[in-house]
Amino acid sequence: MPRTVWSGAISFGLVTVPINVVSATEDHSLRFHQYHLEDMGRVRVRKFCEAEDREVTSDEIGKGYQLTKEQVIPISDDELRDLPLPTAKAIEIEAFVPLESVDPIRIGEGYYLQPSGQVAHKPYKLLAKALGRSAKVAVAKYAWSGRERLGLLRARDDVIVLHAMRWPDEIRDPSELLPPPVELSDEEIEGALALMDSMTREDLEGAEFQDTYTEALEQIIEAKREHREPPALPEPEGEPGQIVDLMAALTQSVQKARAGRGEDADIHDMPKKTTKKQPAKKTAAKKASGRKPRRSA
Hints:
Shape: extended
Strand content: 25-35%
Number of helices: 5
Number of strands: 13
Order of helices and strands: EEEEEEEEHEEHEEEHHH
Strand order of the largest sheet: 1-2-10-13-12-11-9
Low-confidence stretches: 275-297
Distance between the termini: 80 Å
């Protein structure tokens, strides 16, 4: 059972739902420590006080805000916990919006909300059922770790999920990253749509969606533990080259995707590439002019 990271309540109009917040995800990444390569001794980071030039313990460390170069304002955990905000103790639902209206770039880490106590069971179930039947999600405010945050509430298998959200001013403007203007033909766009269709799936189950990086690390660690050579890396299928003919690349990609899924790799519905008819060349004069042709600059 995951540990509770926050306790409070969901405020839904005049309805209050006591809840506990637990993480909805697990990190299975392998963790590495730092070691002195000469003798493999563990390298650790020690915390020193600049004023006293000595190592300090965790009990001696607190938070502070540097107001000026000489003045620091200490802030305690109790002060952060008891901020005079309605969101300090509750997840305040502010509005309901269609899910498609929320830019995914604003959606972050997910947490499960667990009803806390017998009194929370019915209002929790009510909100979960309402969210499940609706095409909308709830947008809420809450305060954790010294700051007020924006969140998104939705239902997943009758469990209410809270997703942390970014404030609008935390999203960078991507306009400076745009490529220069280019012309795209209807055939190229239709070719990209055909490739998307050939790669469409009903779910994300399968070997393609497994963490092969962690598996490869585990194989290396196991091989070194047994004092043998790690497994050889598979040869890449081919180095990606410069795209010369976009339609040809799209057609080959569709063929490869369909063949990988055991489908007919022949392409019958890809748009035909059309080329503009070149104007006919003028016929050369029968007689050469007596004047020498000018050289182009």
